[in-house]
Design goal:
- 2 copies of one chain form a homodimer.
- Chain A contains 16 helices and 16 strands.
- Chain A is α/β, with parallel strands linked by helices.
- Chain A folds into 2 domains: about 100 residues, Urease, subunit C, domain 1; about 290 residues, TIM Barrel.
- The longest helix of chain A has 18 residues.
- In chain A, the strands form 3 sheets. The first copy, chain A, has an 8-stranded mixed beta sheet with strand order 3-2-1-4-13-14-15-16. Chain A has a 4-stranded parallel beta sheet with strand order 5-6-7-8.
- Chain A starts with 5 loop residues before the first strand and ends with a helix.
- Chains A and B meet through helix 3, helix 10, helix 13, helix 15 and helix 16 of A and helix 3, helix 10, helix 13, helix 15 and helix 16 of B.
């Protein structure tokens, strides 16, 4: 066996390690060995001390070490609209608040600043990779690289003009250009983000399928978000959106179908058969009263599940630990069964499930030799998470975002002991505050 | 007007004050003036500086000041069982895990240590008053007084023997003794806690009604927690539990009906007509798949709603900010309406609603002149809660428990800048850890 001893960049000894993949759910007193951004070993601490030396050795004796969270659906820049308009029905919220605010403020600068601001919150909450779907994908990618986060940017495709472009051909061209721009940046991937069945017509969707196959890129789309969406489509076309998308060839392992609160048994089977991933956004679905996603039924059919916070304008944060808890709790209520979506399945959804959905599971999503060192540490020593009978369940059901102490992406430290390393927290806060003042002043 | 100027004990200037009662939901740049444990004024900071002097003046310029949370249903000592058994159906969880653990470990010492441990978590999370229902009420009260928290202890009543007593007459005697013991302790109230319709028969329930009226004490009971409970009662007696309790005279403004996930329209009307309070425990109901409480329908009927975390063995914390968010989100999903249980109603439920349920709304639950100074401060300056368009919605939808910086009960400071003042955090943690080791070692 190679790589079983020698010199490394970083060794982290932790009270517990949750690898997510492998035979053991929880390893006690183990160490993770990192070199050149990769995990090169995972072994008992006592053995690690004998076999490995490293430039930096960290001992986290009240902590659980696990893969960073993969936030599989967000609109990060909307962090600047957090709390702008709450407790409103979806269409009032969109038409009277969000769309006017977007048309007033949308720019590359807004998206860059908003994404960087959200990146600070993501790093503080243990997210190491996010899937974003918003205007100006290059600005998203730039802010993300600045923060050191891993991102898949889903370049938006719509039938109509926006501050970003004129129409579908324009958007498609921009998506291809972004894909080209970022092809040599290891932390950035670019996919296609046709907004929703009701905002993108057949022709651009067919082009998206063709290009996504050509470039081996993922596709993300809001699908069956509300009963209204499904009903309107049925009334105007006689067809449910999912059936139409299937006919167009969109349902496949490269599709991340977001929300999916309205699914018949046959549709659940179709999703499973086509290898489509479902991105569950429980807090957004609750807050906008969109409906309940049948998470446990999807899981029982073997569908790959990922977890997303959605944008902070609707949910109102990018807190994956909070989202994870809501997902684990809500799945039980919806299934009417206390053993639905157990803690380990919820944690997998928030990590490896997201990686699979993005086609990145060979690189991230679990702590396995050869994968990228996208890793976080959570301190379970606080009053709120003692005593510890099962660290995995403790993270899902009791830990809070403020207990994340360290965040690494590809072995690079983005936060240590709650201190941001790549971003200047004071500056990020100052920018967010300034944007807030401008937006509030205009209301 | 009296009390409009002079010498006070403490003045707190805050960026925002949320009084919960009164014309304004949010006051900007106001000050709260406290003397002898009471709120004696609430006025613009500029006026406060002119009119009042105080031994201590605190300026919290990124914070929202609000009444402390009233956790209207918990079993605090169960914090020591946090995470002992998760993802299990209710009866398996109770019969194979919780009851065996309780019968093995239950003692006055366990309840005292567990309650004190939970008190540390409550103070850190901004809870100033809690309603507890567990064995050994005097141990609960002692731990609570030690922590400086306000408590209403619901002394348990059951048909069968437990480590605490022999049977209903024994339990009733103990409740009366506890009521007598704590009558001169301002922070402690004692009520009656008949466990559930299926564990207490008619005769002791009639005695509870008689005694509660005599002593003007509240009654708390788990009611219609699951469909199984209601169905079993119907099968064995031909009657739904709520109808039986109504016949026995239990439904009244002194009753706190906990859970209530199974309610017909007529039952909702009955609850409203009788002035019964409903204590909603959304996370416990989800995690144990008990069902969904029709919170918005109850609210539309004018029912007083309170919020409880339930015990940490089932939910798994005593975090009122988390519970508040879950309640506000879930109510929308259940009602199918994004304007159900808006942020201000959710916040009222978590404060004044709980105070009303406990019959303490003349003393606590809002920041009003003459009420007890049970107050908390929440720092909204962090990345997770910026920008601030509406501080009230920000607390409900974005703030986390770790952003609570100060907690006062009756004007006494229990936490300042996250540092516990009445409890020794290291000692509390050491005790909890030691109990955890014992319990885990025995598994």
């Amino acid at each position: 066996m190679s790589n079983t001893s020698g010199q490394a960049d970083l060794i982290v000894h932790a009270r517990w390690i949750l690898p997510i993949e492998g035979d053991e759910k929880t390893l006690n007193h183990h160490a993770l060995v990192i070199r050149d951004g990769l995990i090169i070993d995972l072994l008992p601490s006592a053995d690690a001390e004998r076999r490995w030396s490293a430039d930096e050795v960290l001992t986290l004796d009240r902590h659980a070490l696990m893969p960073g969270f993969v936030n599989a659906h967000t609109h990060a820049a909307m962090n600047l609209f957090r709390g702008l308009a709450d407790d409103l029905p979806l269409m009032t919220w969109l038409e009277e608040h969000i769309w006017p605010a977007e048309s007033k403020w949308m720019s590359e600068q807004f998206v860059h600043d908003g994404t960087r601001f959200a990146a600070a919150e993501m790093i503080r909450g243990g997210t190491t990779c996010f899937a974003d779907m918003y205007f100006f994908p290059d600005a998203i990618a730039r802010a993300s690289v600045e923060a050191g986060l891993r991102v898949t940017v889903f370049s938006p495709i719509l039938d109509f003009p926006t501050p970003m472009g004129q129409g579908p051909d324009d958007y498609l061209k921009m998506a291809l250009a972004s894909h080209d721009t970022w092809r040599y940046e290891a932390l950035v991937n670019v996919g296609f983000g046709p907004h929703a069945p009701y905002t993108v017509s057949d022709e651009p969707l067919q082009k998206v399928v063709t290009w996504a196959e050509e470039l081996d890129a993922p596709i993300m789309m809001h699908i069956h978000e509300t009963a209204f969406e499904v009903q309107s489509a049925q009334e105007s076309t006689g067809q449910r959106p999912l059936a139409r998308l299937h006919q167009l060839g969109l349902l496949s392992p490269r599709m991340l179908a977001v929300h999916m609160t309205q699914l018949t048994d046959d549709e659940i089977k179709l999703v499973a058969e086509t290898g489509t991933s479902v991105v569950h956004c429980p807090e957004s679905n609750l807050k906008l009263a969109s409906g309940f996603c049948a998470v446990e039924a999807l899981r029982q059919h073997g569908v790959n599940l990922a977890l997303g916070t959605d944008g902070a304008a609707s949910n109102n944060d990018v807190d994956m630990i909070g989202e994870l808890r809501t997902a684990a709790l809500l799945a039980k209520g919806v299934a009417g069964s206390a053993d639905a979506l157990p803690a380990s399945a919820a944690l997998e959804m928030a990590t490896l499930g997201g990686a699979r959905a993005l086609g990145l599971d060979q690189q991230i999503g679990s702590l396995v030799r050869g994968k990228q060192a996208d890793v976080i540490a959570i301190d379970l020593g606080a009053v709120e998470t003692q005593p510890v009978f099962d660290p995995l369940a403790q993270i899902v059901y009791a830990a809070g975002r403020s207990q994340v102490t360290h965040t690494w992406v590809a072995g690079r430290c983005l936060m240590a002991d709650r201190e941001l390393k790549t971003l200047n927290e004071a500056r990020v806060l100052r920018d967010a505050h300034a944007w807030g003042e401008k937006i509030a002043g205009d209301k």
